[in-house]
Every structure is written in C-alpha cells, then in structure tokens.
Write the structure tokens for this entry.
Amino acid sequence: MDTEFSDTRHSFFDDAQGLLVGTLLVALSVQLLGSAMLTTGQIAGLSLVLSYASGLRFGLLFFVLNLPFYWLAFRRMGTAFTLKTFAAVGLLSLFTELLPNLLIFQTVHPLAGAILAGVAAGAGLLVLFRHGASLGGIGIVAFWMQETRRIRAGWVQLGFDAFVFALALWVMDPVTVLYSLAGAMVTNIIIATNHRRDRYIAR
C-alpha cells in the first residue's frame, strides 16, 4: 500500500546509508543528553524521562513506545515509509545501547551538551526525512501533517515537546529542564527551517 509519500529517487544503498547516518547522529545526540542528564522532546525525550525515573534502558523504552504509531504510518504513509521507520527505530535502539561502551563524555556543560545534541538530532532527523523515514512516534505524525496538511513538522513536534518537558519537571530540576528545552528548540528550528517542500524538497 505505497502512497505518494514513498520516495523512489533513492536507491536501496542510498536509503541504507541515509538510515545509518541519520540514526548515528541521533544516537550521538542521545549520548550527549545522557552524559549531561538532560532530556529532549518527542518519543526520545519521553523515553529519556521515563528512563531516569524508572532505571529502565533508553533503547528498550524507545522501541516499545514507538510500537503503537506504526499503524498510522502504514495506513497513511505507506509500506516503504513504515519499513524504513521501523528500521530506523531499531537502529537507534541498537546504537544507543552500543555507543556508551565505545564513547564516553567525561565533562559536558549542560548548555553546550543541549545545543550540540540539538544540532546532531536536527541533522540526523533531516537525513531520515530526506530518505522517507522518521524515528517513529510523533515524528510519524509530524511527517504526515507536513505532507498532507502543510503544517511544518517542527511545529507539530514542538507541541508534543511541551508535554514532555512538563513531565520532566517531576524528575528533573527546573534549570536542567531549561537547558534541555534549549536543545529541543535548536532541533525543531533546524527541522522547521530546512525540511520545507517549497525550498528544499524536490519531487
């Protein structure tokens, strides 16, 4: 049930490297956030908050929380988008489990960590969007809203982020939440200004 949203401009190799690069950039973002005990928006942020509160691993929470959104992806965005998104979520879950064993940040200033994580996540999400994928959850909703309602993906995600940061106040101090919010704003600004059909997305 592929739809007009499926992108046939890329070869299998193009999409494979795009998913790898995009998820690695976002995994690096998660590593920076975790090292500074920060959070972010979307399902990744919700997974981080729940991880801090429960002690469960981020990768497991992220994978499970994304499961309900695949039905929307399949019905509204098509088979190709759903499979790519499922692969991207699986890769990110795997990379966030492996990366702490390979890369350790000993000192991360919260504001610097938030901004750098925001840039890495924004770049990674753009790569995934350009290859017809997302990181599931609100990313699926945001991608669909932009493609069908012309509502920018960044603004859709920003609305959900408000909920995540309100929840974060229960387990994090307000200053840390503010630093985290700065990073999430960087991510959403990058997506809102760069993932635009009228400027950059050619069909």
About this structure: Residues 1-7 have pLDDT under 50 and may be disordered. Residues 12-194 form one domain. Residues 12-35 form the longest helix (24 residues).
